[in-house]
Structures are given as structure tokens and as C-alpha cells.
Amino acid sequence: MDTRSEARPAGARRLPRSLSVADELRAAVIAGEFGPGERLQEVRLSKRLGVSRTPVRLALQALAADGLLEHAPRRGYSVRRFDATEILNAFEIRAALEGLAARFAAERGLEEAARARLEAILAEGDALLSRGELPEGSRPAYIRMNAAFHEALHGASGSRMLGEMLRLSQNLPLSSHHHVVAFEYRRVRRRHDDHHRILEAVLRRDARRAENLMCDHVASIKAGLTGVAGP
């Protein structure tokens, strides 16, 4: 995990260190860098992140409050284990919320900056898939692009409350858009085409179609979970 500070625009607000550490740890847990049941030790994490133990401790408390970690007296924090039912339920919730986000975005209409951002993300995905196969080592790039599309659409919904609920619905590693199920060309191509259709419906201000397409999109991802749902 890269903990180097990035340049910020003049006047940009710096997040409290405990919040940025929490974001980094949340991303690592959701990405599967720590396995279910694995203990997260303050000393090791502080060395890994290059910070003192205090922001790490506060970050662990925050992730436990969000339901990503479990805390046991004298044992500390560990990554929460989720059973198949919890994961499938999270996808059902995510589908409903993401569908609502797409509907809100269509009803409001996209600002030019939001439209340009979403189109640029899709163009990036088009380039990635243009060879008819997935280039070697392309998984991280696709994950970033996929997450960026969903997050940009969430932002376009204009609802902060919905955004917070979506964040909580993805606090299970397998249910997050930062986790890609079945990374093979045919399925990735189909999911990327879904993104194009969703954006087209949003741009046409067809709120019902945008909502239905997004719900179906998330449901198709759930169906691809090996060992949890059907093929």
C-alpha cells in the first residue's frame, strides 16, 4: 500500500490522519489483502502505513463500528467473517441502492463535468477491451475503472445519504465494486457493455430504465460468485 502523500491543490482540506488511515485499511480489507479472521495488529499496521499507533487504533475502531472488523478483549481486532447468506443479502441491498442512484442521476440530469467523467471512464474501459482479450496484468486497471464508474454515478445521484448507505452496503469484500468476480474477457465485456447502457439511459433521462439496468447489472455480478451463487 502506497502511503506517500499526494500533492493537494492550494486550499484543499486535509483529512484527519485517522480518517485517511481508516480509508486505506478499509480499501485493503475490501480488496482481500487481509483474510477472514486475520488479526490486525497495531504495531505492524503502524509500520506498514508509516504512522503512529494512535491513528491506527482510531481507524480500527472506525472499521469495527462499520462492521468490517470484530473486536475481542485481549485479542484485539480481526477481519470479520461473512457467511454466504450475508454476502448474497449485501448484493440484494447494493442492487436496490445502486438502482436508486442511477434513477436519481437520470431524474436530475448529468452536469457536463459528470458526463465527461463517466464518458472518459467508459473510453478507458473500451481501450482495455479493444483487443478482444484481457491484457496480462490488466486486472488492477479494470478494478480502478469499474470502481470509478460506480462512484461517479453515485456522486451524480446528488444524495449524500444514499452515498453513505451504498458505502455501508459494500463493507463486505465480495460485494464491493472494488472486487471483480470472474475476471475473464466474455464476462468483463458484458459488464462493461452494461455500463454503456446504463449511462445511455441516464443521459436520455429514462429513470426507470436506468434503475432497472443497474439492478440487473449488480444481480448478474452476484450470480457469478463461485461457491456462493449460481454460475
Structure overview:
The two termini are 33 Å apart. The protein is mainly α and 231 residues long. Helix 4 packs antiparallel against helix 7 and helix 4 (84-108) runs antiparallel to helix 9 (207-223). It is globular and about 55 Å long. The protein has 9 helices and 3 strands; from the N terminus they run H-E-H-H-E-E-H-H-H-H-H-H. A 3-stranded antiparallel sheet has the order 1-3-2. The chain has 2 domains: 17-79, Winged helix-like DNA-binding domain superfamily/Winged helix DNA-binding domain (Arc Repressor Mutant, subunit A, Orthogonal Bundle); 84-223, Four Helix Bundle (Hemerythrin (Met), subunit A). A hairpin with a 3-residue loop joins strand 2 (69-72) and strand 3. Keywords: DNA-binding, Transcription, Transcription regulation. Residues 15-82 form the HTH gntR-type domain. It holds the Pfam family GntR. One of its GO terms (molecular function) is DNA-binding transcription factor activity. This is GntR family transcriptional regulator.
